Amino acid sequence: LKRSLYALFSQFGQIIDLVAMKTMKMRGQAFVVFKELTAATNALRQLQGFPFYNKPMRIQYAKTDSEVISKMKGTFGDKEKKKEKKKKAQEAAANATKKPAAALATPAQTPAVQVPDNPPNHILFLNNLPEETNEMMLSMLFNQFPGFKEVRLVPGKHDIAFVEFESDTQAGVAKDALQGFRITATCAMKITYAKK
After folding, report:
1. How far is Cα 89 from Cα 50, in angstroms, rounded to an integer?
2. CB of 181 within 8 A of CB of 172?
3. 12 DSSP assignment
4. What is the DSSP letter of 138?
5. CA–CA separation, 146 and 149 (whole Å)
6. What is the reported pLDDT for 122?
7. What is the maximum alpha-carbon separation in the chain?
8. Rounded to an integer, what distance in angstroms lies between the CA atom of residue 142 and that of residue 136?
9. Under a CB-based contact definition with an 8 Å cutoff, are residues 196 and 119 in contact?
10. DSSP string spanning 66-89?
11. By the 8 A CB rule, do 190 and 125 touch?
């Protein structure tokens, strides 16, 4: 679940924390903490109602700052304050039914990845994928783009995959948007047009 959430949300900006607990009270909820408020806002707008594990996501901002954010701001208090915050966070979580995004505004830009390429094609070739990549993770990442048809993994080769679109143009849009996307913190995905 955490991997899928990370894969889905990290395209909007740097994620500094992801909290998803299995307790009955917290079930069906997760907190995605972005480094920047703009990234959280973008994710909230783009993924509202997005089908995640066959259910539409309901996203809202967390009612309080996460511990990571309050530590960064220097407002993180002692244990008594921590307990109060935890209580408030749990109450907020009980009210927030699905996946709120908490964030903080601090500018950070990631440089664009330059990858040598083939002539435009409706099929994209992905490489430098982490070992745990599966068809569902890639489908969730690419089906937000118009014209998405299917993901094909290569048996025995975990680090490569093909993604098919209806047209070269639609494939190009997805390619540009997700170039260098990190499915995990260490693996930046490389996308080229497949050879014709």
Report:
1. 24
2. no
3. G
4. H
5. 9
6. 94
7. 63
8. 10
9. yes
10. -HHHHHHHT----HHHHHHHHHHH
11. no
Q: What is the CA radius of gyration of the chain?
A: 18
Tokens of 24: 């009955």
Q: Mean pLDDT by 10-residue block, N- to C-terminus, for the chain (196 residues)?
A: 82 84 79 83 84 83 72 59 55 47 42 66 92 85 90 88 93 90 83 90
Q: Which two tokens stand for residue 46?
A: 């783009």
The size of the chain, in residues, is 196
3-state secondary structure of 52: strand
What is the rounded end-to-end Cα distance, in angstroms, of the chain?
A: 36
Tokens encoding 147: 């014209």
What's the token pair of residue 31? Answer: 């907190």
With a CB cutoff of 8 Å and minimum separation 6, the contacts of 120 are 168, 169, 171, 172, 193
The two structure tokens encoding residue 11: 């395209």
Write phi, then psi, for 139 (nearest 5 degrees). Answer: -60, -45
CA angle 3, 6, 8 (to 5 degrees): 110
Token reading at 149: 């048809």
Q: Is 112 exposed, middle or buried (0-12, 13-18, 19+ CB in 10 A)?
A: exposed
Alpha-carbon torsion (110, 111, 112, 116), positive or negative: negative
CB atoms near residue 178 (< 10 Å): 20
User: Rounded to the nearest 5°, which phi and psi values hold at 13?
Assistant: 160, 180
Q: State how far the alpha carbon of 81 is from the alpha carbons of 95, 124, 154, in Å.
A: 21, 51, 51
